[in-house]
Amino acid sequence: MNLLLPWPLQVFRASIAALGLAIVTSFSMVLAQTETVVVAENAGAATQKELELAEERVFRLATTLIAPSIVRIETVGGLDEVDGILAVNGSTTGVIVGSDGWIVTSAFNFISKPTSILITLPDGRKFPAKLTATDTLRMLALLKIDASELPTPIIAPPESVEVGAWALALGRSLSPDQPSVSIGVISAKERVWGKAIQTDAKVSPVNYGGPLIDLEGRMTGLLVPLSPQSQTVSAGFEWYDSGIGFAIPAADVMQALPRMQAGENLRPGLMGISFTGNDLSGDAPVVERVRFQSPAAAAGILVNDVIVAADNIPIARLGNLKHVLGRKYAGDQLQLKILRKKDPLEVTIPLVAEIPPWDEATAGFLLKRNSLSTDAESEKEKLIVRAVFPNSPAMSGGLLAGDEILAIDGESVATADSLRKLLDRRKPGDQPRFTLRRQNQNGQAEEVQVSITLAGQPFPVPGELPAITNDKPLAEGENAPKAKGRFLEKLAVNGREYWGYAPASAAGKQPHGLIVWLHPSGNSMEAAVLKSLKVECDRRQIMLVGPKAEGKGWTPEDVDFVKALVEHLRSEYPVDPSRIVVMGQTDSTKLASFLVFKDPSIYRGAILVGGPTAGQPPERDPAARLHLNLTIPEGSRSADGLKKLVESLKKQKSAVSTIFASGDGSEFPDGTWAEQIGIWIDQIDRF
Fold first, then answer.
1. Residues 185, 176: Cα–Cα separation, whole Å
2. At residue 148, what are phi and psi to the nearest 5 degrees?
3. What's the burial of 411, exposed, middle or buried (CB within 10 Å: 0-12/13-18/19+)?
4. Is pLDDT at 541 greater than 80 in this prediction?
5. Could you tell me which residue ranges the PDZ domain spans (predicted)?
6. What is the reported pLDDT for 129?
7. How far apart, in Å, do the first and last CA atoms of the chain sit?
8. Taking the CB of residue 616, how many other CB atoms lie within 10 A of it?
9. Are residues 95 and 205 both part of a single domain?
10. Are 114 and 89 in contact (CB under 8 A)?
11. Which of 296-306 are b and which e, b meaning 16 or more Cβ less than 10 Å from the residue's Cβ?
């Protein structure tokens, strides 16, 4: 339930210490009365109304004790939209944690980067505030006002916070005169990777930044939106008032306070390791990659090391390790125990806030896709070079189309995946030695070796590539799916309509790329898109599908629709999972990029025509490569902004390509644009 509790401001003009003593004394009396009522009820003598009145008195007194420390925060100016959320200026909540004007609140309250911040104290005084520091691990913000002798809350000892105990979530957004209260219980501790208390009290922007308190009026936590799946400032916002709310333990808030008061922005601690699995509850933490220039690399962590303990806590699964890391700041140290070929080792890793962006080392060649040996005794995959990019490191090193790759630096490679993992461990400037099988002038196979100096990102897309030939025809007597050409269908799971184009080659087994076209609001552009891309779909073995929005435009619910559509097409056609891209134009580019950023294991690239991304892309990850192609209409009002976005992405070592087009972006691009897009999709699984 929600209560709005009136309390007289004049009461708090007296000494806060005396007031606290009086309220605690009253509180103890009410508790004694409540216990008496409970005993009486058990004896059949008390009424339900008496119990409810006793409960309400306890809630009121607990709220009255902490209310003088809860302030109202008002923000002015800033961004209109962040992470797809409308960032509306208004009132939020904060808690005084220093009598000389220190106020802590939720970082979510400043998502719009406001130009002005105003604090209203419970006694009605108003002060401008300065944002002193932020904590992006626990999503806190610290403000400072020019005031003194302010009341601060009593902090509950960590050991007193118990699952099942009453919890009151307070805010001062709705009214400056009285706090709002939502009643619940503490439903779990150490949630969101060890950072948070969970409560079923209603938590939302109404009380973000407010205190979570116990029945003694002590602050047990500070209310913030959080999510186990994301570290962005808006993560968890979608759960507001759902019965799943989070609060940073008050003791942790106070522990971080001195560093934030000194102006230090606190950030999550990183060590620079990725692991062989991604199942947090099932996979053991076996090191697959160690980031170059990372603390883990400096500490001597190696590929295939197994982490068995962190800070003396046993680690059996990835989730255990993430739970320990979830509490660590940059600047903290992490003690690891590892097994290296069954030998135990101990290392100390100083965690950092940033690791230089992963720069994908690239040679500049393509393999034939899913080529199989014709050897009757073996169905071993052959790694045959299909194309070598002009002016690439591979060409300079002497790699030729038709070469079969056998080994890298003496380590055999049997699959395209194993080849990619070996190259992922190299950095730009490295010179891996390729062992190849090549036909000599006499037509005989011989082994040769070439060294290739790898380049970094962004890597230029070649101006031309040979068309794809069918390397995997159907076996004799094998039935082929029907090649539909252009088609219009409805998805069985939800009845939503979509159109598509399947080239004749999709009737075979050769893996095809897939473009998911998200049309701008109010215009499917079906005819224009198909006319532009049909030739390249045939030449580059690419399927095209256009889901249709319901109503005027796309909504968050369409994320699941697009995902279900892709899954359906993968079950019906030979879709290549490494070449599934989403394309949007003008107002649909944000959804297109959001899909790619959210599920890089499904969508490997985004084609954005005349529109921006939905925020910054996630950090580049060898396990989920993302490729971006931005078409910039030279005559559009967004052209300058898109050019700046491209430069920003390049600094992050993103795999970004740019195509400049004529017009203002309202029409579908013409000229050589389609050919450039076809080549771009054809090469995103390059090495």
1. 26
2. -145, 165
3. exposed
4. yes
5. 254-342, 352-413
6. 95
7. 58
8. 14
9. yes
10. yes
11. bbebebeeebb
Q: Indicate the residue among 351, 385, 413 that finishes a domain.
A: 351
Least Cα distance to 269 among 200, 327, 222, 346 occurs for 327
Instruction: 296-302: list long-range contacts, CB under 8 Å, 24+ apart.
Output: 296/271, 296/272, 296/349, 297/272, 299/347, 299/348, 299/349, 300/347, 301/271, 301/273, 301/336, 301/338, 301/347, 301/349, 302/340
Tokens linked to 12: 């708090």
Q: How far is the C-alpha of 629 from the C-alpha of 515, rounded, in Å?
A: 13
Tell me the mean pLDDT in the region 62-88: 76
Q: Residue 39's pLDDT is what?
A: 44
Q: Which of 143-147, 268-272, 668-672 is the least confident region?
A: 668-672
Lowest-confidence region among 178-187, 202-211, 286-295: 286-295
Residue 175 has a pLDDT of: 78
> Which residues of 440-530 form beta strands (DSSP E)?
445-451, 485-490, 497-502, 512-518
The DSSP line for 265-331 is: PB-B-B--EEES---TTT---BEEEE-TTSHHHHHT--TT-EEEEETTEE--SHHHHHHHHTTPBTT
d(CA 294, CA 299): 9
pLDDT for res 29:
43
CA atoms of 451 and 436, how far apart (whole Å): 11
**Inside any domain, residue 359:** no
Cβ-in-10-Å burial (0-12, 13-18, 19+) of 482 comes to exposed
Instruction: Please give the structure tokens belonging to residue 330.
Output: 């940059």
Task: State the Cα–Cα distance between residues 337 and 312, nearest whole angstrom.
Answer: 8
Q: What share of the chain is helix, strand, coil (3-state, %, to 5)?
A: 25, 30, 45
Which of 108-117, 235-244, 281-290, 500-509 is predicted with the least confidence, judged by mean pLDDT? 235-244
Give CA 300 to chain center in angstroms.
28
Evaluate the CA torsion angle 79, 84, 90, 92 in order and state its sign.
Answer: negative
- The answer for 561, left when phi > 0, alpha when psi is -120 to 50, beta otherwise, is alpha
- What CA–CA distance (Å, rounded) separates 687 from 685? 7
**Local structure of 169: helix, strand or coil:** strand
Predicted confidence (pLDDT) per residue in 419-462, tens digit = 998 898 888 999 999 999 998 888 888 999 999 999 998 889 99
State the Cα–Cα distance between residues 363 and 453, nearest whole angstrom. 7
Residues 541 and 436 in one domain: no
Length of the chain: 687
Residue in this structure with the two tokens 């989730």, named with its chain if needed: 319
* Contact yes or no for 210/93 (Cβ under 8 A): yes
Is 400 strand, coil or helix?
A: coil
Same domain for 331 and 251: no
CA-based radius of gyration for the chain? 30
Let me know whether 442 and 581 are in one domain: no
What's the average model confidence in pLDDT over 250-262?
95
Integer Cα distance of 578 and 267 in angstroms: 33
Range of the domain at 407: 365-451
Q: What would the two tokens of residue 32 be?
A: 């004694």
In a domain, 163, yes or no: yes
Contact 127, 119 (CB under 8 A): yes
Tally the C-alpha atoms within 13 A of residue 417's C-alpha that lie toward its C-beta: 6
Are 438 and 303 within one domain?
no
